[in-house]
Amino acid sequence: MTEQSAPTTAAGGQGSTARGEQTRQLILDTAMRLFRERGYARTTMRAVAQEAGVAVGNAYYYFGSKEHLVQEFYAGTQRDHREAAAPVLAREREFAARLAGVLHAGIDVLSPYHAFAGAFFKTAAEPTSPLSPFSAESSEPRDMSIALFREALTGSTVKLDDELREALPELLWLGYMGVVLYWVHDRSDGQVKTRQLIDGVVPLVDRLVGLSRLRVLRPATRQALALIHTLRH
Amino acid sequence: MTEQSAPTTAAGGQGSTARGEQTRQLILDTAMRLFRERGYARTTMRAVAQEAGVAVGNAYYYFGSKEHLVQEFYAGTQRDHREAAAPVLAREREFAARLAGVLHAGIDVLSPYHAFAGAFFKTAAEPTSPLSPFSAESSEPRDMSIALFREALTGSTVKLDDELREALPELLWLGYMGVVLYWVHDRSDGQVKTRQLIDGVVPLVDRLVGLSRLRVLRPATRQALALIHTLRH
DNA sequence: CGCCTATCTTGAACACGTTCAAAATCTGTC
DNA sequence: GACAGATTTTGAACGTGTTCAAGATAGGCG
Question: What count of other Cβ atoms lies within 10 Å of the Cβ of residue B7?
């Protein structure tokens, strides 16, 4: 547990419209720039402080750790994702098109950070870390992301079981995490493979969602939904 | 193969029945003990060296980094997994029972390390790291693990499409990675939830594999297999 | 203005992972 | 036994993330 970090983290929380807001933003921008330019590992806290023109300790006053800077990045891309997906969601009505739009928008937003995204995911994988996408601390950006997939679903013309309709957004988000995992490992030019993954998997999901109402698949669907319900407490 | 990493790692490779074998084993055992006792982060290389009665640099002569100690752990559980799964594979003929056996055996083997498994997965998630389960360097343990799932399949009485039969072991392994990810995040007593996940998902997979030969599902199955083929180059 | 408190800023110091040149030890050969 | 070369071992030193006691600054109040 790292929460002990007392005043430091507390002060740098969310609100803080106080004096230091400018300094906070300056440090954050500098860090993001250096992350893009040099990658995560090669960006030292000393370098961030120096380039921002502040002392090392000052950076720690606003951000509890180097990893907390990554969490800010996480929250930022969340907002950008919603923005990038908005046009498609306003235009399209077909579920497949909407889902593809949201997925592609997510990768669009992440693209500039592919080089250091590995470090991002490394952080995300640690279950004890508050930065994990599954952790309670990350519930806000996660819920926002799930809401995006819910919107892709509810705004569409697709017909499906009520129970499935309720569970699907979270499953789609989970699938999105899988896509991101693939993207992180994707070494193809411009991460074309990830695009192919999206374009290939979306019609598949679309087809399966349609099929789920068929008599032969109903038991399996029910079984899956019951399992999810069990595992969620 | 990890030979690129200079002399240090090269010497500590695989064979090396040379003099230092005892020292190597001593350091490894000490490290594993401390990992269990104190967790990964709280175990310092200095502590490992001191408890093993050697100099710090000596540990680095045999293991390129602290993370390389984790890779040894990874390889070790691989062997144990195969062993633990053997009885069930010798006894059962039903696909569902065999798959459940292999999955449960995997979790059985990992259980004592649940406390520090987070650090393990953190390492595993970094795509640039040779320790990633998807990396070329990890291909040996990965292939062994996939072979285990292939055995679960081929030794069973289940009937399925040839193309699916060929692709399924790798998919099952991928699913297993998902189970492990769930297990790492599982905070329930004795990780019961993970056991429920296995017991719930196995019949589901079994049923879907059976259904995949049905006329309604054939297009979807073909589509999925084509996608996998595309993504694999 | 002068004082008080909360906020912000500083940079030296600490612990850790890692490196490396030097020393010690072993193995084989004459 | 003595030498040469490979193998193994050492521990001081480096760079890094992080901490913290001390100082600087701002805002409110008399």
Answer: 9
Classify each residue of B102-138 as buried b or exposed e, where b means 16 or more C-beta atoms within 10 Å of its C-beta: bbbbbbebbeebbebbbbbbbbbbbbbbbbbbbbeeb
Q: Check B224 against A204: CB less than 8 A apart.
A: yes
Q: Is A193 on the interface with B (CB under 8 A)?
A: yes
Q: What pTM does this model have?
A: 0.85
Q: Which nucleotide is nearest to A55 (CA to C1')?
A: C10
Beta-carbon separation of B231 and A122 below 8 A:
no
Probe site for chain B from A131, A189, A199, A231 (most B CB atoms < 10 A): A231
Percent of chain A at pLDDT > 90 equals 66
**B197-212 pLDDT, tens per residue?**
999 999 999 999 999 9
Q: What is the pLDDT confidence band of residue B21, given thresholds at 50, 70 and 90?
A: confident
Question: Is it the case that residue B9 has pLDDT exceeding 60?
Answer: no
- Cβ contacts of A125 on chain B, cutoff 8 Å: 121-122, 124-125
Q: Does the distance separating the beta carbons of B134 and A126 come in below 8 Å?
A: no
* Protein CA at A145 to nucleotide C1' at C3, angstroms: 51
Burial A1-38 (b: 16+ CB within 10 A, else e): eeeeeeeebeebeeeeeeebeebbebbbebbbebbeee
What's the pLDDT tens digit per position in A187-204?
Answer: 999 999 999 999 999 999
